[in-house]
C-alpha cells in the first residue's frame, strides 16, 4: 500500500535516544473473495406456496493469519454476500379460479457464524427470463401443469462490524468467520384471479445455489518506537526525509510496515535494512546502515511524499537491532536519503 533536496552538505552523524512518532497509526485493507455452489436434484411435490428444501452453501473466510500482536489489531470487518439460485420447477394449478405466480420472497437466507443473520429478504426474480405467471399471461388452470425453466433468483446482504457493535467482541475472538447461505424457504406469492392468496403444487426439478462472499478486513497498525541514529540534510522538499514504523516489532512476524516520509513525489525509493550502524559516503549523503544489509522493494513515492515497505522479521530473535534508511531519487540532487533509525526486535 502506498502511503514524501537542496545543496550538497555533509551528513551529520550521531547516536541518540530520541524516539520518533509521526502519525499514531495507519490502516490497511485485506480482502478475500470466496465462492461455493451446491446442486439439488428433483424434489418432492409440495401443496404449499412455501416450497424448496434446504439448498445452501457454506463459505469459510479464515482470519487465522491475523495474529494477536501488540501494535496490530482489527479495525473493521465487512462481509458482502451474493446468492444466486437457478432452479427448474414444474407447477400444477390447484385453484379452480386460476392461479398467478407473482414473485417470491426469501424467508430463510442465512447467517454469519451465528453472529449476523439476514431475512426475510425480497428476491429479484425474472433476470433475463420470464419467471412466474404474471397477470399478462393466462392463469394456471386447476390441474394444468407448466414448467418454469429456469427460475433465476438473486439476492444479497452485507454486514459491517467495528468497535462498539454488539457482535464486535465475538467477531474479534473468532479467527474463522463463516458465512452460511441457503434457500430453505421460498414464498412464491401465489394468488388466484381475484387476487386472493392461494396454493399450487410445485416440484423442483433441479436447483443450484451459487454464493459469493467478499470479506474486507481493515487492520490497524500502531506506530512503533524508532531511535534516530543518523540525521540527514534536507532533500528537494526542503526538509530531511524521515522514517516511521507501524505494526509489530515481534520476532518471527511479518506485520511491520516501514514508511519513508517527507520525500519528493513520484520518485523511486529503496529501503536499506542492516544489523548495525555505518557511515559510508553515498552520493550527496551517507549510508548509515551496515553489517548484514538487505534492500527492500523499489516502489514509487506517492503524491503525499510517502512510501511504504513491508518488513518480515522471520529469522530475527528478540533483542536484535535493526537499522533502517530509505534512499530515493531526487529531482535536485539526483540521489538523496532519509535520516536513519533503528529498533530492537521484541
Number of helices: 1
* Separation of the first and last Cα atoms: 25 Å
- The number of domains: 2
DSSP strand tally: 28
Overall morphology: elongated
Oligomer: single chain
Output mean pLDDT.
74
Structural class: mainly beta
* Sheet with most strands: 8 strands, antiparallel
Q: Percent of residues in beta strands?
A: over 45%
Characterise the protein shown here.
With 346 residues, the protein is mostly beta strands. It has two domains: 12-21 and 225-344, Sandwich (Immunoglobulin-like), CATH 2.60.40.1930; 27-219. Helix content is 2%, strand content 53%. The chain contains one helix and 28 strands. The chain has one helix at residues 168-173, and strands at residues 12-13, 19-20, 25-40, 50-51, 57-62, 72-93, 99-101, 105-106, 110-112, 116-118, 121-122, 124-125, 145-161, 176-181, 186-187, 190-192, 200-224, 226-231, 242-247, 256-261, 269-274, 276-282, 285-290, 294-296, 307-311, 321-330, 334-337, 340-344. Strands 1, 2, 18, 21, 24, 26, 27 and 28 form an eight-stranded antiparallel β-sheet that branches. Strands 3, 6, 12, 13, 17, 19, 20 and 25 form an eight-stranded antiparallel β-sheet that branches. A hairpin with a 3-residue loop joins strand 26 (321-330) and strand 27 (334-337). The longest helix is centred in the middle third of the chain and has 6 residues, at 168-173. The two termini are 25 Å apart. Mean pLDDT is 74; it is low at 1-21, 45-55 and 113-130.
Overview in brief:
By secondary structure, the protein is mainly beta.
List keywords for this structure.
single chain; 346 residues; mainly beta; Immunoglobulin-like; 8-stranded antiparallel β-sheet; elongated; disordered N terminus
Amino acid at each position: 500500500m502506498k502511503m514524501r533536496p537542496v545543496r550538497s552538505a555533509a551528513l551529520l552523524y550521531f547516536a541518540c535516544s530520541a524516539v520518533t512518532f509521526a502519525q499514531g497509526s495507519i490502516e490497511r485493507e485485506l480482502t478475500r473473495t470466496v465462492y461455493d455452489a451446491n446442486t439439488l436434484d428433483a424434489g418432492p411435490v409440495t401443496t404449499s406456496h412455501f416450497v424448496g428444501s434446504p439448498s445452501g452453501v457454506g463459505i469459510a473466510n479464515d482470519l487465522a493469519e491475523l495474529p494477536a500482536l501488540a501494535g496490530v489489531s482489527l479495525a473493521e470487518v465487512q462481509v458482502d454476500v451474493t446468492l444466486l439460485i437457478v432452479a427448474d420447477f414444474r407447477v400444477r394449478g390447484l385453484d379452480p379460479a386460476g392461479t398467478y405466480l407473482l414473485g417470491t420472497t426469501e424467508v430463510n437466507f442465512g447467517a454469519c457464524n451465528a453472529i449476523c443473520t439476514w431475512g426475510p429478504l425480497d428476491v429479484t426474480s425474472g433476470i433475463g427470463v420470464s419467471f412466474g405467471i404474471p397477470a399478462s399471461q393466462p392463469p394456471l388452470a386447476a390441474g394444468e401443469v407448466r414448467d418454469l425453466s429456469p427460475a433465476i433468483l438473486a439476492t444479497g446482504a452485507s454486514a459491517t462490524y467495528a468497535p462498539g457493535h454488539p457482535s464486535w467482541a465475538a467477531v474479534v475472538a473468532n479467527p474463522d468467520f463463516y458465512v452460511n447461505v441457503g434457500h430453505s424457504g421460498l414464498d412464491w406469492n401465489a394468488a388466484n384471479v381475484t387476487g386472493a392468496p392461494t396454493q399450487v403444487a410445485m416440484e423442483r426439478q433441479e436447483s443450484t445455489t451459487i454464493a459469493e462472499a467478499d470479506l474486507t478486513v481493515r487492520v490497524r497498525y500502531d506506530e512503533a518506537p524508532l531511535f534516530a541514529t543518523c540525521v540527514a540534510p534536507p532533500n528537494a522538499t526542503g526538509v530531511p526525509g524521515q522514517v516511521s514504523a507501524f505494526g509489530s516489532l515481534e520476532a518471527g512476524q511479518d506485520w511491520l510496515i516501514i514508511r519513508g516520509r517527507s520525500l519528493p513525489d513520484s520518485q523511486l525509493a529503496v529501503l536499506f535494512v542492516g544489523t548495525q550502524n555505518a557511515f559510508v559516503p553515498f552520493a550527496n549523503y551517507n549510508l548509515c546502515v551496515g553489517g548484514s544489509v538487505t534492500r527492500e522493494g523499489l516502489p514509487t513515492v506517492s503524491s503525499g511524499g510517502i512510501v511504504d515497505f513491508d518488513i518480515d522479521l522471520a529469522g530475527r530473535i528478540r533483542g536484535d537491532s535493526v537499522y533502517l534508511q530509505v534512499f530515493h531519487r531526487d529531482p535536485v540532487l539526483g540521489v538523496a536519503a532519509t535520516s536513519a533509525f533503528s529498533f530492537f526486535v521484541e
